[in-house]
Amino acid sequence: MTFDPRSWLFVPADSERKIAKAMASAADAIILDLEDSVAEDVKPEARERVVELLRTAEPSAQQRWVRINPLPQGGAEADLEVITAARPHGVMLPKSESGEDVKLLARLLELHEGRARVAAGIRIAAIVTETPRSLFHLDSYGGTGERLAAMTWGAEDLSSALGATSKLDGEGNLAFTYRMARSLCLAGAVGAGVQPVDGLWGDFRDAEGLRADAEAGRREGFTGKLAIHPDQVEVINAAFTPGEAEVEKARRIVALFEANPGAGTLGMDGRMLDRPHLVQAQRVIAMAARDHTPSLEGRG
Fold it and tell me: b/e map of 205-236 (b: 16 or more CB within 10 Å)?
């Protein structure tokens, strides 16, 4: 049984030390980064390191993903030509501008899986807000195929592409443009039926800021979050794991509706509950029941 990772930890694919630290962490998923964190002249060596790691790593509940370079001429095909045979759990696509990019990547994966004679099924997570054009296509990811597993967002590349001097407003909060990108990513992912993954909290030393941001993201509907340092993992995992009291309340709500199958509205603890409350309760129970047992699927 697979699961939606709570924590997605980026790690440069050219650093053995950082990779070892990431693999030893409690991150549900690590993202071996072949894009921004790896200089162009060492990308070939980094690809080989990814292959060696994926082929020799012990089976684990931790999913192993690879962030490839962008499409169409950004280096993605060179990455896929090398890493596909090692069967990562999935690939993360940066600078995706629409569902058409996911479809193109799915075709490339099928091609390279065939050439490598490995079973099909490498998944896709797309970063969907890194270019100005991408903001106008967040509703295009539905129906792109079963490979698409998650959508996430980022502000750094977008702010650079827009020519912004800062992604923050005068009070130190995300400016409207980037809050909008975040919300559109959430709506687009849920509309496409895939996991919505919240973006980075940049200051890995600020645990309290991260906790507040992660908890806010979960309240809004995100079910996981990106991380840039192992110290962020435990905070993120805790934020996206329902507590016992929350799970117990959710079970009571589900039981109440099961006992009254014809009711549209019911009362519990002085509050009126309707179908949206039932759906949310079911989600809480599902999150609490996520399977984190070791699996060989996708070598993850």
Answer: eeeeebbebbeebbeeebbbbbbbbbebbebb
Q: Which residues contact 71 (CB under 8 A, 6 or more apart)?
A: 93, 95, 96, 101, 104, 105
Largest CA distance in the chain: 65
Half-sphere exposure of 255 (CA within 13 A, CB side): 7
**Domains of the chain as residue ranges with CATH:** 7-241 (3.20.20.60), 242-300 (no CATH)
How far apart CA 17 and CA 265 sit, in angstroms, is 55
C-alpha distance from residue 177 to each of 16, 41, 134 (Å): 37, 34, 13
Q: Rounded distance, CA 91 to CA 101, Å? A: 13
Each residue's pLDDT tens digit, 251-293: 998 898 888 988 888 889 989 888 888 888 887 888 787 655 4
CA–CA separation, 5 and 1 (whole Å): 13
Please tell me the distance from the alpha carbon of residue 93 to that of residue 153, in angstroms, as a whole number. 11
Q: How many residues are given for the chain?
A: 300
pTM: 0.89
Q: Can you say how many angstroms the Cα of residue 163 is from the centroid of all Cα atoms in its chain? A: 26
Between 52-66, 79-93, 185-199, the lowest mean confidence (pLDDT) is in 52-66
